[in-house]
């Protein structure tokens, strides 16, 4: 490609509404252009990156035996009503009425349509396993789209769906996809982790996220440097502490804590470690009657150590809370605790409350909690002596760095990541809802065992940039760079020698199959270099009249601190060497 | 590709709602699968065809210097309001409200968005010319979607938009695209014609349609076998007949024609050629006041020879009718003609009517028309003697086969075609509406001169099938076949020799870069051959144990009436020879 026939449009400053570095750099480098909130034009440079991502994904999906098809962007509501998602999904699902008033959605994902295809096309166990995938435009009407392609509304996703005859087959399909994803992410040239994720109601361990490591990532990734344990924060188990519970050593005592409503404030006031305090979180579960009205409400008190955070996914697995819960209202709290939030605790309740203690709290002695009296806390609280043992003990908290690894092989560490892929075992959730069956060897209809596998095609470039950039701009890995190499001739319009050498080198690199751009725009060297550093092309070759007199060019990798002089005759081999590196 | 790892799903019968052959064959061959009215899944085989079409289009667009980008499917209404199309377009424009109640559309085309990009990105004449294109999903909410991908609601289009500094530049861009389109359509391997099309209000001759020739095509294409003249029916000019008008030879006479309300019926009744009759068409134009209310209505009488059809585009260019017209109501007709439709004519009007005669009619003598009296016609009618010369004379009719070619080089012929491409000079229509300007050499803002260029990516396979099929199925040209060649081994599961030879041949063809599929499904020969004939893979190679004993295979092109025995050692060369043919 020659720059004069392409479209390069860089900006000195990013628009004010770009908050994260990838969004800023994608706008500044001219990869994307905002059209509306969360909706972007993929500009020529950005589209080249997206196409390279697509090509790698497509090759590896095909290699893994998946078959590509393409499902419509606009999908009829009927299928979404079959699974209940038309109503269950919130306003994120973009709903449309056509000219005849019929309901449609803009697809955010395609479980319904692909299951509809399977129930019509896959009649027999002999046709299984089958894995269909597409690379297609999606839409999710996010309430607050932001961070450019990181959390846009319109985006491109690769979504694959496997159909198997039984759970063992589905697990094999799942593992094949997990392997393919490792090959895909290896080829992207990014640092990433495959982390265990929560598999929701399905159970089992067949859910993994592929996280691109980046300090700016939204997700916390838990891993064990001494082993290959890795999970996301939702999933990572906090092991039960090693008991037994210490004996009580302090008397229970009510202490005034005026205006100190957080554990941290109380610990500071009393001069004790935060880990000696216990925080009280009040939840509610509603029981509904057949008409769908609320027939009764149970209030729950969750107790966590003051320095720990609640993990909602884990809480949602506690028996009794596993059908959905909400935070209690202020009125409910006051009715049960006789006190406003900030000074709550498990002692002296006005009405029955179910108490669930985190594993850590269940083994604490001499702890501090709210007194259920404004501006007062209790210290020296002890289980059994001061209050009954909790109704339940469970892992309710997020792990923290230094916790023991669940595999027993070391201590956990935490880093940040950006979720770009997900493999997930679905079981028969969709095939049952849509009665999608095949005939087994005995001629009996059976529901498909399914899995789904996504990669955020347009999110990946943003994640790559969050991981790989510096103050001058983007640093692309070769595999997904908009161009692998750029030839920057200095004074091409003045010097016939420079022009001829540049054109010849360009032709040679093209012939060698290298995706190269020749910057023939006639920009001054400073502006030209700044553009390519911002755009992040990994390999740069500079030709100048002076260098050519000595038959030399300058090579610089985007990560190099200085340029290297290379004989013009050797530059292709040099470049190939650096590309191989 | 091996069939066992792919997805083949053929049907014996097409669903009843498939009317045209391409729709039937695409469903039967498993290329597409209906999801909703006018909305189709592109199944694995169909997607392969679409991707090949896309690849050819992309290569030639790039070669022509156009730059690919991608504009969102969901576009904000604001831009569409700037050009007025948000209101002007009918229900074909699919309108959406997002969760915040803001208006969006699903793009049917992208003039607004690309013009918005240009006005932000193309600041200077130095950046021109520039041609942006995309290959992207579109949606048009057709009232009556039908014919499968021929007139679907969701479809894929390649749309390109050129930006130039002046009309001469725009014409050069237009010509470059017209040339690229010829290369693209040549590469598809289809018989097609580039025909002049009407360019609407812009004027000039810079509008061409690319029509794939097919007897079942919706469009009539006019061409001159003796020259390179070709136009669509809307555009093709009916030359003025060579005068002078013959002298009157008959008296005017009112004749009873009870129940004969069409020219054909009257000609038959009176025993005269249909070409002696004149048909009367009544139109109306409304004048509106500033409030938009109708302030006055003008009634028009169009006179065409009985054997000619009205051409609405030509009528829309008659001065006075060029701001829009409608057919007159029954009440308007009766008020002006004193008679019901069926017996209307230009003589004996009740109120003033503007009379426009087709060029042919203006030179007729002794003609027949309605008498403005039920069940009566006039014969022997003559201009000047029986009625004043018409208010206007114009080309109002469709040409017919045998008409003189407008280039004076022969007679016109007519065939049917399917419009798959269109190149169009837009002028400043959009750039003015959206105030999209660049700075010229003098620093003065000027509106972009634009062109737009479309190819129906998903319609093309349907058009290809309408042109190339037989009773057994589709016959693909090599360039866009889902697979170029198929290897059909007979008894592969029984014979190790067949299996080994098939696998080796498959590997050899793959290595030679041929897009081949090995049918390893274990189907019986009859079913296997029927599948591939239906699917339309152009080159078939059959391996059998008997043939292999003589080191022979059977080759058959989809168009051949019989198979040819070819030495196994020569089959690659033989295949390449037939592919080159």
Architecture overview:
The first copy, chain A, has 581 residues and is α+β, with helices and mostly antiparallel strands. Chain A has 3 domains: 50-207 and 419-465, BirA Bifunctional Protein, domain 2; 253-394, YbaK/aminoacyl-tRNA synthetase-associated domain (YbaK protein, Alpha-Beta Complex); 483-580, Anticodon-binding domain (Rossmann fold, 3-Layer(aba) Sandwich), CATH 3.40.50.800. Chain A contains 16 helices and 31 strands. In chain A, the strands form 8 sheets. In chain A, strands 3, 7, 8, 9, 10, 11, 12, 21 and 24 form a 9-stranded mixed beta sheet that branches. Chain A has a 5-stranded mixed beta sheet with strand order 16-14-15-17-20. Chain A has a 5-stranded mixed beta sheet with strand order 28-27-29-30-31, sandwiched between helices. The radius of gyration of chain A is 29 Å and the shape is globular. The model of chain A has no long low-confidence stretch (mean pLDDT 95).
Short description:
The structure is a homodimer of 581-residue chains. Chain A has 581 residues and is an alpha+beta fold.
Entry keywords:
homodimer; 581 residues; alpha+beta; BirA Bifunctional Protein, domain 2; YbaK protein; Rossmann fold; 3 domains; nine-stranded mixed sheet; five-stranded mixed sheet; 16 helices; 31 strands; globular
């Amino acid at each position: 490609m020659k720059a004069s026939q392409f479209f390069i449009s860089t900006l000195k400053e990013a628009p004010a509404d770009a908050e994260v570095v990838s969004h800023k750099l994608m706008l500044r480098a001219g990869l994307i252009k905002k059209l509306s909130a969360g909706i972007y034009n993929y500009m020529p440079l950005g589209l080249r990156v997206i196409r390279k991502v697509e090509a790698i994904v497509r090759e590896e999906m095909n290699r893994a035996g998946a078959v590509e098809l393409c499902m419509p962007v606009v999908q009829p509501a009927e299928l979404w009503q079959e699974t209940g998602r038309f109503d269950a999904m919130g306003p994120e699902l973009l709903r449309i009425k056509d000219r005849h008033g019929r309901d449609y959605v803009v697809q955010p994902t395609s479980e319904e349509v692909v299951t509809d295809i399977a129930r019509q096309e896959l009649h027999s166990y002999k046709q299984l396993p089958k894995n269909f995938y597409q690379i297609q435009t999606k839409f999710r009407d996010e309430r607050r789209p932001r961070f450019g392609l990181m959390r846009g509304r319109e985006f491109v996703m690769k979504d694959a769906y496997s159909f198997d005859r039984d759970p063992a087959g589905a697990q094999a399909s799942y593992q094949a996809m997990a392997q393919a994803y490792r090959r895909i992410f290896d080829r992207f040239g990014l640092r990433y982790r495959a982390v265990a994720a929560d598999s929701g109601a399905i159970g089992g361990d067949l859910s993994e996220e592929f996280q691109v490591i980046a300090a700016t990532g939204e997700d916390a990734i838990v891993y064990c440097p001494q082993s290959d344990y890795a999970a996301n924060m939702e999933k990572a188990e906090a092991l039960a502490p090693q008991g037994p519970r210490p004996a009580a050593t302090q008397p229970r005592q009510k202490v005034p804590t005026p205006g100190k409503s957080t554990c941290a404030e109380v610990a500071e006031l009393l001069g004790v470690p935060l880990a000696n305090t216990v925080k009280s979180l009040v939840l509610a579960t509603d029981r509904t009657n057949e008409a769908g009205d609320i027939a009764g409400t149970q209030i729950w008190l969750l107790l966590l150590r003051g320095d720990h955070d609640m993990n909602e996914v884990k809480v949602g697995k506690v028996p009794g809370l596993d059908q959905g819960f909400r935070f209690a209202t202020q009125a409910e709290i006051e009715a049960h605790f006789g006190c406003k939030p900030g000074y709550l605790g498990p002692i002296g309740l006005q009405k029955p409350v179910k108490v669930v203690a985190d594993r850590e709290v269940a083994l604490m002695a001499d702890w501090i909690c709210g007194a259920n009296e404004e501006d007062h806390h209790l210290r020296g609280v002890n289980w059994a002596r001061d209050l009954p043992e909790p109704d339940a003990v469970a892992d309710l908290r997020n792990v923290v760095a230094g916790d023991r690894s669940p595999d027993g092989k070391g201590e956990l560490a935490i880093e940040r990541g950006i979720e770009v892929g997900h493999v997930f075992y679905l079981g028969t959730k969709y095939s049952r809802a849509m009665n999608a069956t095949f005939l087994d060897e005995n001629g009996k209809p059976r529901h498909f065992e399914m899995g789904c596998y996504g990669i955020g095609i347009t999110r990946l470039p943003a994640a790559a940039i969050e991981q790989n950039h510096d103050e001058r701009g983007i640093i692309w890995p070769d595999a997904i760079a908009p161009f692998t190499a750029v030839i920057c001739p200095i004074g091409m319009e003045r010097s016939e020698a420079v022009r001829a050498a540049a054109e010849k080198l360009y032709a040679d690199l093209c012939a060698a199959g290298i995706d190269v751009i020749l910057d023939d725009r006639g920009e001054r060297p400073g502006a030209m270099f700044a553009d390519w550093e911002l755009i992040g092309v990994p390999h740069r070759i500079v030709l100048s009249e002076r260098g050519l007199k000595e038959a030399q060019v300058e090579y610089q990798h985007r990560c190099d601190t200085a340029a290297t002089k290379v004989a013009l005759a050797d530059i292709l081999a040099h470049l190939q060497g650096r590309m191989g590196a």
